[in-house]
User: Which sequence fits this backbone?
RNA sequence: GGCGAGGUAGCUCAAUGGCAGAGCGGGGGAAUCAUAAUCCCUAGGUUGUGGGUUCGACUCCCACCCUCGCCA
C-alpha cells in the first residue's frame, strides 16, 4: 500500500530576500524530511510558493514606484535561485498569483459561505479621497490619542507602544501623498471562528500527545483563555484575489486567508503540470494521508488554528464545488505542525534593515551547500531559540563534518582505490566485521525513527555517531597494517568499511545530499540517488509564472541496506568537504552590520 | 497584564519519578590509511533560585528570577 505524505512549507513573502533564519525554520527541515520520505518510497509531495499578495508588497511597490507584480517577480526569482543552489527539492514551488490558486481560494471561500461559516459586517475605515481607495492601517499616520505622539501609525503607536483604534486617530494623513483621508463605511466578510472553535479544539486535543509542546500548548492556551473571535477575510485592495461574488469583485481575499490555501492549490497545480490531473486527491481526500506543515513559530496560529478551521469549515463541500462530484469527501486535516523556534545570530536577533543577517544567496557565494545544511541542522531551533556563531560554524565544519564523516569516507576510499581500484572481494568475515555491519545496518531504524518524528537534529547526531563507530573499527582492524601480512583479510576489512560507508551515504543523504551524491559516484554507481530540480515557465490566464519542479525520474536511492556490488570499479576519490580556515570567522563577523541596539550579544 | 515555550558541563544539546549523559572544546597517550584527519584514557555539573510532595525529583506541585514568542 502506498503511503502519502504532504510536506507543506511556509510561503515566503515576496518582498524580501531569504535569510538563514527562514531556511533553518522551515525550508531546510521540510527538504530533509521530504528527501527521507522519498527514500522510504512514500508518495511525497513538498509544496510551497511565493506569497505574492498583501499590503507589504503593495507598500514596497508604492515606495519604488513600480507595480506589485514587479516586486513579487523579483523576489520570486531569487527564491528559485536559492532553493536550487541549496538543494531544496520542492515538488512544486509556485506562487499565489496563479489562475489555479485564484480558483481554489475562491472555491474555499464559496464552500465556507455555503456551509454558513461566513458573515458580513459593516465598519468604518480610512479612505483616500485623492487616490479614491481605502487605505490599509499602516498607510495612515497621525497623532496618538493616548500619548499625543504626532507620528503614530493608525493601528499602533511607536512611542507609547499601544495598539490603537484606527478610527480614533487625531489629524490623520495618508503616508502616500500626505492628503487627509476620511472615514467611510465599508463592508467585509468574516470567518465565523466561534462556530468552529469546538471542532478546532478537538482537532488540537487529538494531536496534543505527539505535537511539539510549544505548538499545541500555545494554540490550546489561546482558545482556553480568549476563545476564537471572528476574523475578517476580505480587504479593500486591488492587488490580490477578487471575491467570487456578484457586487464584491472589487474586494480581495485577505492574504492570511488565501496564502495557506496554497498548500491545497499547489498540490492541484503539481498534478496538472505533471500530467496526472487527479493525483492531488490522494493527499487531500485520503484520510490515511499525512500532511505536515513546516513553519516558523510566528506562523503557528495560522497553521494550528486558522487553516484547520478553514479546512473543517469547507469540509466535503470543497470537492463538490471543485470537481462537481457529490457527495464530496472532507479535506485532510494537518497531521503535524513541527514549527521551529527562531535562529539568532551571534547572540542577537536577525535584523534585515541593519544587515544583522545571513542572506541565503550570500552564504552560498562563499560556502558549499552541505556544510551550511550540516551546521543549520546541528543548530536547528527545534525546541528553543538557538544561535548561529561564526566560530562555531567553522569548528563544526572542521572538527565534525570534515573530521568524522568526510575523513572517514576519504581514508577508506583512498586506501582501497590505491590498492584495489574496485570494491574488494571479501573473504570470511570476522566477528568484528559482522558487528560493525550490524551496527550501521541498525542505523536505518535508529536514524529513521528520529526522522519519522521530525527530530532532525537527533537523526543527524545518530548518523554521525555511526560514522565514528566505523572510525573506531578501522583503528582496531588497521587494514594499512594488515595488508602487509594478509592481503585477502585487508580486502575483507575494506569491503566491510566500504559497505558501511555506502550505507552511511544513504543515512546522511537527506541532510547532505550533494556530498552523498558525490560519494555515490565515487563508489562506482552511475545512476543518482535523487532526482533533478527543474525551472519551468507556466502560462495561465494571469500571464506567466516560473515554478520549481522536482523530477524524480532518475532517482535510485532507497532507505535500506542494499549490498555493495563486489568488483564495482571505484572513481578516484576527492575529499567530500573542504576544511575551512577558522580565522575567517573574524572576517565574517566584520561583514555583519551593527547589532540591534537592544542586544548585548554573547560574552566572549 | 494574559497564554505558552525554554533555563542541564566551557559550547551545542540528551535524559517524562530510579546511579545526570553524548558530541565538540580542555589535559594525557597511541597510531600513520586519511584534508594533522583518527583512536584510547581523562578532567569538568549544588540541573536558574527558594520551598513542597515522594523511599527517591532535571522530571510532579507552589512561588520567584531570566530569555523568547503569541495575544491584549
Assistant:
Amino acid at each position: 500500500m502506498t503511503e502519502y505524505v504532504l510536506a507543506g512549507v511556509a510561503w515566503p513573502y515576496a518582498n524580501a530576500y531569504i535569510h538563514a533564519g527562514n531556511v533553518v525554520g522551515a525550508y531546510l527541515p521540510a527538504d530533509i524530511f521530504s528527501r527521507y520520505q522519498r527514500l522510504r518510497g512514500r508518495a511525497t509531495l513538498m509544496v510551497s510558493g511565493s506569497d505574492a499578495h498583501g499590503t507589504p508588497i503593495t507598500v514596497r511597490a508604492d515606495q519604488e514606484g513600480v507595480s506589485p507584480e514587479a516586486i513579487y517577480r523579483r523576489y520570486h526569482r531569487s527564491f528559485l535561485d536559492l532553493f536550487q543552489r541549496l538543494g531544496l527539492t520542492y515538488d512544486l514551488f509556485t506562487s499565489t498569483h496563479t489562475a489555479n490558486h485564484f480558483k481554489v481560494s475562491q472555491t474555499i471561500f464559496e464552500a465556507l459561505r455555503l456551509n454558513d461559516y461566513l458573515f458580513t459586517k459593516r465598519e468604518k475605515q480610512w479612505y483616500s479621497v485623492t487616490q479614491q481607495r481605502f487605505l490599509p492601517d499602516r498607510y495612515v499616520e497621525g497623532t496618538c490619542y493616548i500619548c499625543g505622539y504626532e507620528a503614530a501609525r493608525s493601528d499602533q503607536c511607536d512611542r507609547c507602544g499601544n495598539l490603537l483604534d484606527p478610527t480614533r486617530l487625531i489629524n490623520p494623513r495618508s503616508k502616500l501623498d500626505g492628503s487627509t483621508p476620511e472615514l467611510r463605511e465599508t463592508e467585509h466578510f468574516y470567518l465565523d471562528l466561534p462556530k468552529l472553535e469546538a471542532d478546532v479544539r478537538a482537532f488540537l486535543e487529538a494531536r496534543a500527545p505527539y505535537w511539539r509542546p510549544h505548538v499545541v500548548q500555545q494554540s490550546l492556551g489561546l482558545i482556553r483563555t480568549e476563545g476564537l473571535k471572528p476574523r475578517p477575510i476580505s480587504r479593500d485592495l486591488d492587488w490580490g484575489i477578487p471575491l467570487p461574488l456578484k457586487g464584491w469583485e472589487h474586494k480581495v481575499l485577505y492574504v492570511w486567508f488565501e496564502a495557506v490555501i496554497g498548500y491545497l492549490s499547489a498540490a492541484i497545480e503539481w498534478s496538472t503540470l505533471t500530467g496526472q490531473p487527479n493525483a492531488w486527491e490522494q493527499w487531500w481526500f485520503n484520510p490515511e494521508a499525512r500532511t505536515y506543515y513546516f513553519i516558523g513559530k510566528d506562523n503557528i496560529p495560522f497553521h494550528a488554528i486558522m487553516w484547520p478551521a478553514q479546512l473543517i469549515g469547507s469540509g466535503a463541500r470543497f470537492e463538490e464545488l471543485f470537481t462537481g462530484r457529490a457527495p464530496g469527501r472532507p479535506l485532510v486535516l494537518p497531521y503535524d505542525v513541527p514549527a521551529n523556534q527562531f535562529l539568532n545570530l551571534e547572540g542577537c536577533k536577525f535584523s534585515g534593515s541593519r544587515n544583522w543577517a545571513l542572506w541565503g544567496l550570500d552564504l552560498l557565494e562563499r560556502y558549499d551547500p552541505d556544510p551550511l545544511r550540516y551546521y543549520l541542522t546541528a543548530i536547528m531551533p527545534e525546541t528553543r531559540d538557538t544561535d548561529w556563531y561564526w566560530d562555531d560554524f567553522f569548528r563544526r565544519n572542521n572538527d565534525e563534518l570534515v573530521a568524522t564523516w568526510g575523513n572517514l569516507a576519504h581514508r577508506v576510499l583512498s586506501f582501497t582505490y590505491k590498492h584495489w581500484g574496485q570494491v574488494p572481494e571479501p573473504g570470511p568475515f570476522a566477528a568484528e566485521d559482522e558487528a560493525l555491519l550490524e551496527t550501521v545496518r541498525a542505523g536505518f531504524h535508529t536514524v529513521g525513527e528520529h526522522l519519522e518524528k521530525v527530530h532532525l537534529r537527533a537523526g543527524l547526531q545518530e548518523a554521525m555517531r555511526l560514522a565514528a563507530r566505523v572510525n573506531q573499527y578501522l583503528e582496531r582492524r588497521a587494514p594499512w597494517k594488515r595488508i602487509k601480512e594478509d592481503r585477502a583479510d585487508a580486502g575483507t576489512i575494506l569491503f566491510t568499511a566500504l559497505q558501511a560507508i555506502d550505507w552511511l551515504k544513504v543515512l546522511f543523504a537527506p541532510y547532505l545530499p550533494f556530498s552523498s551524491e558525490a560519494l555515490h559516484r565515487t563508489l562506482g554507481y552511475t545512476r543518482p540517488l535523487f532526482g533533478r530540480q527543474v525551472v519551468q515557465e507556466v502560462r495561465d490566464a494571469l500571464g506567466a509564472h516560473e515554478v520549481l519542479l522536482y523530477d524524480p525520474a532518475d532517482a535510485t536511492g532507497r532507505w535500506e541496506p542494499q549490498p555493495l556490488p563486489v568488483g564495482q570499479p571505484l572513481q578516484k576519490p576527492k575529499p567530500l568537504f573542504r576544511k575551512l580556515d577558522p580565522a575567517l570567522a573574524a572576517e565574517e563577523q566584520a561583514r555583519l552590520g551593527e547589532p540591534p541596539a537592544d542586544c548585548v550579544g554573547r560574552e566572549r
Summary: The mean pLDDT of chain A is 90. The longest helix of chain A spans residues 390-419. DSSP finds 20 helices and 17 strands in chain A.
